[in-house]
Design goal:
two-stranded parallel sheet, 326 residues, 2 domains, elongated, mainly alpha
Length: 326
């Protein structure tokens, strides 16, 4: 139980040198563990980048040993328990579950931010130290952390030759396509095409823009929810390598709803024929956009994508108009 007159956290300037060294030791241990975890996570798909993080974890272990030696020399073996969350305004690290689905570039950016944060901490801590040896050690570590960006570059040069980087970029591109583009494209196609018949059947049967808009919104949102849950539940991504089911479900669900809403929104216009003309134009823009995305991201030949999407969508549109006009 925390006593009311004792602060839950201290500021860095309020820590003793013993506590500052203990905090630095714990921080180096955490950073080394993070780098090793990233290395293990990336090793199968990005072995060269994993080797870079192996090297960075060894650098952090070296810093920890220097800090331990300094602590033992001044304060003995009993290291107090003090961590980042115990210090107000101190740099923080994401928990492990927030790092699991980060992209390769996001991980590299996070690592660069960690090094900058550590350098800032050591520079500030050195200012509060009264012992010459401790002040020198902290200053040296600040310089070392600032130099880690150069060290990371050296490690990347050593392990990430052009062929390895090209291989890793190809894997990252494939992961992006499988996790975001493919489910999103499937959702956009489903939302754009599957809602054509009901929306335009209602439009021509009632010639009431507001009723058509309501049906369009219901069809689009219903299809989006259905597609999102179906995509998320169909494959956990472990065996197929398609990535997080939550991300895929989100991409599929949102793009399904967007695809249907595109030609439902024009029916907010009170005049039926004006709304219908705009809606039909929107449909053809959607279909050509889908064909372009298939060609750009899925390497589908443009003529085949056009045949599948534009011609198929045009037929579904015609069926809806014919049924609604009958």
């Amino acid at each position: 139980m925390t006593l009311p007159f004792l602060p839950a956290r201290k500021r860095l300037s309020e820590l003793s040198e013993r506590e500052i060294l203990a905090l630095a030791i714990a921080s180096e241990e955490d950073d080394a563990r993070i780098y090793r975890n990233w290395a293990e996570t990336l090793r199968q798909d990005y072995p060269a980048t994993a080797a870079v993080f192996d090297g960075m974890s060894l650098e952090e272990d070296g810093h920890r040993r220097l800090l331990l030696d300094a602590f033992r020399a001044r304060f003995g073996e009993a290291i107090p328990v003090i961590r980042r969350e115990h210090v107000a305004g101190y740099l923080t690290r994401r928990p492990a579950w927030m790092m699991e689905n980060m992209s390769l570039e996001a991980i590299r950016g996070e690592a660069a931010g960690m090094e900058r944060d550590a350098a800032e901490f050591y520079a500030r801590a050195a200012q509060y130290s009264q012992d010459a040896g401790t002040r020198k050690l902290l200053g040296d570590l600040a310089a070392a952390e600032r130099g880690h960006e150069n060290r990371a570059h050296e490690l990347a040069t050593e392990h990430l030759d052009p062929a390895a980087r090209a291989d890793e970029d190809a894997v990252a591109h494939r992961e992006f396509v499988l996790t975001w583009v493919q489910p999103g494209l499937a959702g956009l196609m489903d939302g754009s095409v599957s809602t054509l018949a009901p929306i335009f059947a209602v439009a021509f049967a009632t010639q009431d823009p507001w009723t058509t808009f309501q049906v369009g919104v219901a069809a689009s949102l219903g299809a989006g929810i259905s597609m999102g849950f179906t995509e998320a539940a169909s494959d956990d991504g472990v065996v197929s390598g398609r990535g997080s089911p939550v991300k895929r479900g989100l991409a599929s669900g949102v793009m399904t709803a967007v695809g249907g809403m595109g030609h439902a929104l024009p029916y907010l216009i009170p005049d039926f024929w004006t709304a219908t003309t705009i809606a039909i134009l929107v449909v053809f823009v959607e279909l050509w956009a889908i064909a372009w995305i298939q060609n750009r991201w899925m390497q589908t030949p443009f003529w085949r994508a056009t045949l599948q999407v534009v011609v198929g969508g045009g037929l579904v549109l015609a069926v809806g108009i014919l049924i609604g006009s009958g």
